[in-house]
């Protein structure tokens, strides 16, 4: 079983009114996200689950699409980390539709909130992560050797009558990371540790196709990314295991080394239940393509990216 694991993929929601939760619930159901009742996140229920699941610390992330709400959300998560420094970590959300606002939030999150790392979403108000306007943001994160958690938009419109969290999140992640690859982001900013949610979506399965065909003359390639770079840059990414085991494990390990697999529960959102999170964790723990020690390490691999969080745990 898991023993003192670290969960990189923990969602949270600042306190909301029952009216706000009801409104959000109806909006979700309108997009075929048919959760049976309004969802409320609390730190108490999350800590109770972490105790039961053998999770020592969960890294919190939340990505509101309005700047004021994003900053308030980061403030709230920072208060939880101060209250529970050995149980929670903060991945401060960045507003990547504005390089200036993102740079300001990096500075604030570092110096005022003691953030452990950062969280971004693939498409923030119409701006994707491969947009060239974000180069100053990546340059600053590269300078800081920052860890950045990349998550798709689970509240995007339904597709073909099914909610986005079912499969569309996997393809948004894939399209975004491929765009970042061709934009030269991984080449220019090698010190950023990118952690992809949901095992990188469909990216590991398609990584062989990218290497095989991605540098052919019929593929636009303005930065002249080479076949060797495709393989090397994709292998540098980190992949979390959220809601993808066991079938996502083999493709992931074709793309990244075992120590770049990190544990993610996808906790704190209505598309995850204790039952689904535990079934996924069990599949990780029983995956026969890795040794016992490699499987056990999945729950601790991420600590190398978060020295402040690791130091807090050492004080236990």
Automatic annotation (TrEMBL):
State the GO CC annotations.
cytoplasm
Name of a matching Pfam family: Amidohydro_2
Residue ranges spanning the membrane: these are none
What domain of life does the UniProt record list for this protein's source? Eukaryota
GO biological-process terms attached to the record: secondary metabolic process
Domain Amidohydrolase-related, chain residue ranges per copy: 6-299
Q: Does the keyword Oxidoreductase apply?
A: no
Give the start-end ranges of region Disordered.
Answer: 1-22
UniProt feature, compositional bias: Basic and acidic residues: 1-10
A molecular function (GO) term: hydrolase activity
Keyword annotations = Decarboxylase, Lyase
Homology family: Belongs to the metallo-dependent hydrolases superfamily.
Protein name, entry field? Amidohydrolase-related domain-containing protein
